[in-house]
Amino acid sequence: MIVVMQRGATQAQLGEVVRRVEELGFRAHVSQGEERTIVGIIGDERPLAAEPLEALDGVEQVLPILQPFKLASRDFRSANTVVSLNGVKIGGREIVVIAGPCAVESREQIRETAYAVREAGARVLRGGAFKPRTSPYSFQGLGREGLELLHEAAEEVGLPVVTEVMSPADVELVGEHAQMLQIGTRNMLNYSLLHAVGRSGRPTLLKRGFSSTIQELLMAAEYILSNRNYNLVLCERGIRTFETATRNTLDINAVPVLKQLTHLPVIVDPSHATGKWQYVGAAARAAVAAGADGLIVEVHPHPERALSDGAQSLKPEAFVKLMAELRRVAEAVDRTL
Ligand code: PEP
Ligand code: MN
Question: Is 165 left (phi over 0), alpha (psi -120 to 50) or beta?
Answer without folding.
Answer: beta
